[in-house]
Task: structure prediction
Amino acid sequence: MQWNDRWGGWIVTRYADVVASLHDARLSSDPFTPMRERMSPEEQARWSTIFRVMASGMVYRDPPVHTRLRGLVSKAFTRGAIERVQPRIQPLVDDLLDRMAERGTADLVHDFAYPLPVTVIAQFIGVSAADNDLIKGWSDDMATLMLGSVEDPERHDRASRGMANMAEYFRDIVRERRRAPQEDLASALVAARDRQELLSEDELVAMCVLLVFAGHETTTNLIVNGVLALFDDPGEHERLKRAASSGDAGDQALFVTAVEELLRFDGPMKAVSRRATAPFELGGHHIEAGQRLLLVLTSANRDPARFAEPDRLDLGRRDNPHLAFGYGSHYCLGAPLARIEAQIALASLSRRFPAMRLAIPRETLQWQEALLIRAVREAPMVLT
Result:
């Protein structure tokens, strides 16, 4: 753990310290209130859309507001709701793989790992698959700010446009669900609001915006990073391909532990940010109120004090309490859905294209210049 002048805060890397921080009520998830307080009226006007959407979203709120919002969305994000979506995943995966097979080459990001989760989460929330490209464009604009993209002077304006467009899109969906409810998350949230369960219109829209954004970004990166990690370890890759071609239930169970290990080994989120609301001690250091902390999940997941042989990929690893989906009250609500998608995706890729390989040298992959995510821009593949 050390202070970083460039970022202007503490960098927290040990597993024990990251877990303690994620569970500490003195650390706030809200970066926008202090940011707004430091701004001039002109700057606040420029950021008004961002503040309106983000300040209403569950991800950036603290208890008791976070507790209320999470409780409401949890009522819709049930095991039964996820089980209703699950049967649609395999046909969607098969269709994407069929399209890839027709060409013989594919970009793993744009042809598979992105369209799979964005379609699944869109269906879960209530978005038409025909609008996936719209969602993708707006999400990319939002990512320039939400995921800590660096060296982008236009990121505030791009993010604001993306948020405004997506928020208006979901306001239209909310109006439609009031007229004609369906079996989707948007309808459940509308029903909760209309039962006066303390969910404002802005909070409802922000919930949809953030869920559709977070619901595909993490899973996309999990699938791509996982495939690349397997390419780097031919022995474990072969182990997974053997399991994929086997009809034995024990072999199929490997995909459950494999996804957990790939989350630990090279997870989709590098870090999360917190802000101290009161002074306290952490890892032998004194933290002042108002100081920022960057909790590095990827480092914590490779901490030798917690994981045996942390730099070795072991798809059968059992003792694996990784932090890829966070910890505590902000633990990812969509984690069960992401796990199912990744398990089906990796098994299907392994069966369908066992000889798939990168079409370019590994070292030439371009990684996104973002503080919080671990993601490549493109991953061109030769399939056979």
Notes: The first strand starts at residue 2 and ends at 4. The radius of gyration is 21 Å. The mean pLDDT is 88.
